[in-house]
C-alpha cells in the first residue's frame, strides 16, 4: 500500500487554505479532467465514496484516493507538491496561481 506525504510548499498552501476555509480534505481520482492534481475540498462538501481509500493525512487533512488509483499506485509513495498554475475548477487551490500536484516514482514530473 502506498503512503502520502507533502512538501513544505504544499503544507504552507494547505495552511493558507485552511485559514480561509476551515478544515479540508483531499481526493485523488482517476478521472480524465484532474489528471495528477489532487482536489482540495472543505470537509463536509465532498462525499467520500464507499470504494475510496484513505492513504493518510497531510497537514492535518485526510487524503483519499479512488480504489482504482490506489491499486495502480500500490507500490509507490505519493508526494503532494505545489507548482505554478490553476487548481481544478472545484478545488480550493483554484485562483491562487499555484496548485497541488501529485508526484511519485510512477509520475515523475
What are the main properties of this structure?
alpha/beta; 4-stranded mixed β-sheet; 2 helices; 7 strands; DUF779; DUF779 domain-containing protein
Layout of helices and strands, plus pairs?
Blueprint: E1 4-6, H1 8-21, E2 24-28, E3 39-42, E4 53-58, E5 61-65, H2 67-72, E6 78-84, E7 98-103
Parallel strand pairs: 1-6, 2-5
Antiparallel strand pairs: 2-3, 4-5, 6-7
Descriptive account of the structure:
This protein is α/β, with parallel strands linked by helices and 109 residues long. The chain has helices spanning 8-21, 67-72, and strands at residues 4-6, 24-28, 39-42, 53-58, 61-65, 78-84, 98-103. The strands form two sheets. It has a four-stranded mixed sheet. It has a three-stranded mixed sheet with strand order 1-6-7. The protein is globular.
Q: Please count the helical segments.
A: 2
Mean pLDDT: 87
Structural class: alpha/beta
The major beta sheet can be summarized as: 4 strands, mixed
Number of strands: 7
Shape: globular
Percent of residues in beta strands: 25-35%
How far apart the termini lie comes to 22 Å
Following the backbone from N to C, one meets helices and strands in this order, namely: EHEEEEHEE
Task: Please outline what is shown here.
By secondary structure, the chain is an alpha/beta fold. Helices cover about 20% and strands about 35% of the residues. It is built from two helices and seven strands.
